Structure formats: structure tokens, C-alpha cells
Amino acid sequence: MNAFFYYFYNFMRSIFGHIWNVLVAIKDAIFGIFDIRYYMELFNTYRDDLSPLGWVAAIIVHILLLMLLALFVFLVYKGLKVVFRFKVPVVEYEKMKDEVVTLKREIMKANYEKDKILAMKISELGMEVNADLLETPNELFEKGMAEENADTAAETGETMTEEEEVEIVETKERRFPRLSAVDLYYADPEYVQPVYNRTISLEEICINFRNYAASRLGLYYELEVMKQVFASFGAAKMLILQGISGTGKTSLPYAFGQYIQNPSVICSVQPSWRDRTELFGYYNDFTKKYTETDFLKTLYEAHYYEDPRVVILDEMNIARVEYYFAEMLSILELPREEERFVTVVSNTAANDPALMKEGKIWIPNNVWYVGTINNDDSTFAVADKVYDRAIPIDLDDRAEFFEAPDTEPLRLSYKHLEELYGEAKKKYPISEENLILLDKLDKYLIEHFRLTFGNRIMRQLKEFVPCYVACGGTEIDGIDFMFSKKILRKFESLGLGFIRDELDGLVVYLNRQFGGENMKISKAYLARLKRMSAG
Predict the structure, then answer these.
(1) Do β-strands 265-268 and 309-314 pair in parallel, antiparallel, or remain unpaired?
(2) CA neighbours within 13 Å on the CB side: how many for 132?
(3) CB neighbours (10 Å) of residue 221?
(4) Are 170 and 198 in contact (CB under 8 A)?
(5) pTM score, two decimals?
(6) Distance between CA 423 and CA 470 in Å, rounded?
(7) Which of 1, 75, 333, 338 is deepest in the core (most CB within 10 A)?
(8) Would you state the pLDDT for residue 79?
(9) Distances, alpha carbon 293 to alpha carbons 215, 273, 360, in Å
(10) CB-CB contact of 507 with 523 (8 Å)
């Protein structure tokens, strides 16, 4: 055992001896750095041999070293000051937490006393007293802490499980006054359903609407644009009207609302829009009411009538579309229409609007969404996910004036419009010959450009072309339009300088497969792309 103690003694003495040597070396180094006497003796050794230029250099070097040393000391001082400023002792931190809890309790007590006074005044007026006013301060405090814990859980990403039921809240006032007013309006016995025109065809709608816009509103559009718009309504719920300013992008959907006597709703997009609350609104905890937007009211009111309704997202790319409209894009893509619900609030109340179920409303089928886009430096680029789900239409020129016969508005039924689209898809499906050509074109694009039609674009094309034919167009022109807007648009993101030579080959391929007299829109688009690549 004595041998172990001798070993342990020598072992520890060696370790602490080395540590002591390190500390002594550090001490010697620090004192050596600040050994001014040694520096003076060293300088005296060489000063007699210094030339005038050497004296100047020595002075400059010493000044710089002093400045560097002062800066080092200053930085150390500032660092220590910051560390000790924010260092809170554990005991003091716990004391602060207790003070916060005490302050919350005092606030709850003050609110309780205020509510007691309010309850007494209400009782004097002979009105019913809210049960919440009779809660004790401790109960109010516990409720407040529970709400705070719930907010904390929400911030950390904890969500309700599917097994949990939707919370039921009690409110004396209506949380959705505007939506509840819609219920009352349509529940009025004096409300009379309008008489709809159920005989008009798609081609007649295009012609009559164009004449109405010209004769009644002084707005002029090419008939081809009318065909593209109404055919798009049959293939997608969202349209994008893009082009230079002043070509009637906003006026066109607005005029359509006037034509069918169900005015379109204009939602002017703001640069600050970041999320869905800009469209759907939000619940105000202070007023205990939901801040209802025109967009939300439009969706809700559309349940009560058969008219088509158009929502205009004016200058939609002045903010990022995929931020504030992302939820709607996903909902509109759901294959089953009965599943297209949007959650407005996470709970439900007895006096909520009649058509709101568990805080959700159904997205009706008779609403279309038309976004207008100005492509300039003040706007954001629209993401592919938005373009893929919508049908873009270019309005780059103002239509020429023409004499239009005076045309009256009408009441158009959404159900009749859907029947017209359904009949068109059955009567004018894309021919087998053109389907084979499209399949070959798809393979050509994959081989030369690494692009493909994809299932979504093919579905839209097969629905658009029959509707376009029913509007008075031809099958090949409908294919041309969809190919240019849904496929060729993607070429701009490929790097035009690398595919410039391939563009000529695609034009030759289109001429050989579809004929030199066809696919004019696509060829004009390819010519523009080639000019862009040359510039």
C-alpha cells in the first residue's frame, strides 16, 4: 500500500508541477511583453546607427504598436462589459419569474373587479349577466395560464389529433356579422330567385358578351380572346390575364360580372400580403369577432345562388402568389369537389353562420378566380405551380373599335354553363389523329428540351379544346393556344442561349407534323424567343 501512496504522490506532483510551469511561463510571457525597460535598452543599442529614415520608421512602428495594444485592451474591456451586463444570477432570475406570475395574478384580479362592476351595471339594466363575469380571480388566473400554455403549444407546432373534437365556444354576439347577414338576406321570404337564361350557347355567350362590353361599357376585345376566356372557364377554375398596362385585363372580368348581372369582386393585392389571412381574414381576440374580407363573404354568399361569380385578384404578382394563395391552389386541385373545404376558425359556436360547419366553409363550384399580371420590375415572377394550375391568356394589344349592336345583359345559370361545358367535352373530344401527334410532340420535347406535357396539362388540354370548339374555334387552334401557353412558356427558364439552335428544329417539326398553315401562335412565340436569345 505504501508503494501506491508514493506513486500517487509523485504522479500528482508531476501534474501540478507542469501546470505550475505553464502558469509561470504565461506570467513570464505577459511581463515580458510589457517589459518597457528591456525595450528601451534594445532601442539604445541601435539608435546611434539609425539614419533619419530609420528614425521615422521606428517612430511610426512604435505608434502603430501602441494603437494596436490600445485597441486590444479596449476590445477586451467591451467584451467583459457585455458578458457581465447580461449575466443574471440564478436567484435573481427565479425572483423575476415569481414577480411576473404575481403581476399576472394582480392583472386577473383587476379584471375580475372590473367585470364585477360591469355585471352590476348590466344587472341594473335588467339584462342577463355573462357567466364568465362570476368567475373568481383564481379561476380567471388559471384560465389565463391555460390560454398561454395553448399559445405556447401552437408556437411549438403541437396540433390537435384527429380524435380530438372541435372546440365549442359560447358567445353572446355573432362572430361573423357579415356572413350572418347573408343568411338573413337569403332567408327572407320576400327574396325571389332570378329567372335564368337556359337556352344560350357558348358561342352566343362569346359573341353577345363582346357586343355588350362594346355597346354598353365602351370596352373592345377581339372575338378570339372571348373564345379563349370562356373555353378556359371550362378547363380550370383560375385564369391569368397578363400583358402590358392598359389592355383591359381587369376590365374584362369586371365587364363579365356586369353582363351576367352578378358583379365581380375585385381584390386589390398589396405588396405586404404574406399569408392566407389577407384573403380569408382573421379572428380578433379583442373584439371577439372575425375580421371578414370581401373574398370570404363572396365564397360564402355563392352558396345561395346559381349565378357564376368572378373574383379578380388585381395585380396578383405584386406580392408572391404562392404565399397568400397557396391554400386555394391546393384546394382547387382536389379531385373530389365535396372535399374542397377551407378552415376559417378552429372552433365552432352556436350562432355561427348557417353554412359553416365546424369552423369550415365549402369552396363553391360557381366561383372562378381571375388574376391580372403586369410583367415589370416592380412585380414578382409567378411560380410554375401557379401557372400549371391556371390558364394564362396574353392581352398585349388593344382591340380595334367596331360597331356593336346594343346588347342587353342576362342572368346566366352556373348549372347551365356547366351543362354546356359537359356537352362540349362529349361532342368535340380531341381527334385520335391529333392525340397521336401530341404524343409524338411530347416525345420530341423530352428528347430535345427535357420537357413533357404531364398529366395535369394533358387533362387541361383535353378539357379546353372541346370547349374552345364549342365557343366557335377550331380544334387545331385550341391545341396551338394550349401548347404555347402551357409548354412553350417554360422555355424561358431553360436558358435561351443554349436552346437557340433547337428552336428552329422545333418550328420545322411543327410544320411537318401539323402543317405550315397551323400552329401560328406557337411559331410566333418561338420566333420571339429566338429574338430574345439573340439579344
Answers:
(1) parallel
(2) 13
(3) 22
(4) no
(5) 0.69
(6) 9
(7) 333
(8) 79
(9) 33, 14, 15
(10) yes
Each residue's pLDDT tens digit, 477-504: 999 999 999 999 888 777 777 787 888 8
Longest dimension (CA), the chain: 122
CA 415 to chain centre: 31
Closest CA to 247 of 212, 211, 220: 220
Q: Say what the pLDDT of residue 84 is.
A: 65
**pLDDT tens digits for 123-166?**
554 444 444 444 444 444 444 444 444 444 444 444 444 434 55
Strands (E), 141-205: 167-169
Cα separations (Å) of 481 from 187, 402, 438, 453, 460? Answer: 45, 25, 13, 14, 12
Helices 520-534 + 496-514 axis angle, to 10: 160
In angstroms, the CA 220 to CA 309 distance is: 22
Nearest 5°: CA angle at 109, between 106 and 115? 145
Joined together, the cell numbers standing for residue 195 give 329567372
DSSP 247: S
Positive or negative torsion for Cα 199, 202, 204, 210: positive
Neighbours of 404 (CB within 10 A): 17
Cell 410554375 found at: 384
State the DSSP code for 355: T
Report the alpha-carbon distance of residue 63 to residue 55 in Å, rounded.
12
